[in-house]
Amino acid sequence: MSAQLDEKVLIREFNEDRDIEAVEKFEKNCETGSRKGVSIFTNMMGDPMCRIRLYPTHIMLIAELLENRELVGAVRGCIKHVGTDNGGTHVKIGCILGLRVSPKHRRKGIGLKLVKSIEGWAIRNGAQYICIATEESNFISTNLFVHKCNFVKLSSLVILVQPIKYHAQDPSLNVRIEKLSVEQAISLYKGRLGSKAFFPNDMEAILNEKLSLGSWVSFLKEDDWVGLHNKEDNDFPSRAPSSWAILSIWKTCEAYKLQIRRQHPFKCFHATLSHAGAKIFPCMKTTTCDLLHRPFGFLFLYGVHGEGQRLGELIKSLWWFAYSLAGNVKDCKVIVTELAVCDPVREHVPQGPSMSCINDLWYFKKVNGPSDDNDRWKMTQLFVDPRDF
Ligand SMILES: CC(C)(COP(=O)(O)OP(=O)(O)OC[C@H]1O[C@@H](n2cnc3c(N)ncnc32)[C@H](O)[C@@H]1OP(=O)(O)O)[C@@H](O)C(=O)NCCC(=O)NCCS
């Protein structure tokens, strides 16, 4: 089968000069959602590599039919250095993103061939683990990754999606919200989350990226955070009040936009997509009508963390702050975050009727190094990199 497939399908690296048009056509053909009569289209604004370009080591592979050079599949990969939440250990992980095969050519082994090729690339680039995230309901992915490729479940996460529809609730009068400089945010994150699972070694790069809108802390007005206003004081995290919270915001809407369209009811393909559009799409139950036809974007809230007995009201204030901010960002219609299911912060994110959530599963497999240390990962809290979303 594999030898036969080799004669028909070529897997090669995406060529930015030659393949853009073919990729756009392919993506349009694939990017069709599954909900009654509506579909979602992701406008990558002319850059199919926008999700991986921000990683220093990245690749996009495409599958091409040898007989007519038709592009029938694609997958993206990147390599990251991250923490494992185990005594400060850091590892190199290869991430598989955006795998898809055009509906007409599915179930012929092309998806598997793309996965094997990207795995080979990750191993050649020193990855110790390979990781993939997929919706819990995507049984095809589970079959492909777990049963065919020996991935195991690493963690359950939840994606929370809130459409910007109403006025934001006023932040609590007792709470102060302050913007941090990039240096302050780096030092606070490194101090408090630096050893957490999936904390990126290149946090500086994320916070200095142009898609980063900034990082904000909240704390009670009755408390004083000594050193917070002294930009030279690198030791300010150690003087945090007993309750405080932080989040950072990523302007995903500047990298790509989503567009929901009404479809002819008989043309409704069933396709689940491994990317933000697809992840958010099933959540948009209350908002689809408002969002039809016009491209829209979202803000991704990441690094959501905090401590202390008053954490609840501090997280809520930051959430509503981000919500108001989103209302002022052009074309931004939704705020989104992703947290580990057992992250203590999760219960404090405001749960209104318009809030939706979707379960996301992360799978991984070890591809290099001793085989007995899969259990070094503790996943109560983990860092979701905004570049992956
Ligand atoms: C997932 C996807 C890439 C698979 O591509 P594909 O070329 O059809 O997959 P393959 O033919 O290589 O199948 C490999 C294995 O996947 C599983 N699989 C694929 N299609 C399946 C289906 N319709 N039902 C159940 N299992 C399926 C099977 O285990 C299959 O092995 P088998 O044929 O020996 O039983 C394709 O379905 C797709 O593009 N889906 C939409 C996007 C998506 O969900 N991407 C994955 C997100 S992580």
Automatic annotation (TrEMBL):
Domain of life: Eukaryota
Pfam families: Acetyltransf_1
Record GO terms (molecular function): acyltransferase activity, transferring groups other than amino-acyl groups
Signal peptide (residue range): none
UniProt domain N-acetyltransferase: residue ranges: 9-213
UniProt-listed PANTHER family: ACYL-COA N-ACYLTRANSFERASES (NAT) SUPERFAMILY PROTEIN (PTHR47370), N-ACETYLTRANSFERASE HLS1-LIKE-RELATED (PTHR47370:SF4)
Name of the protein in its database record: N-acetyltransferase domain-containing protein
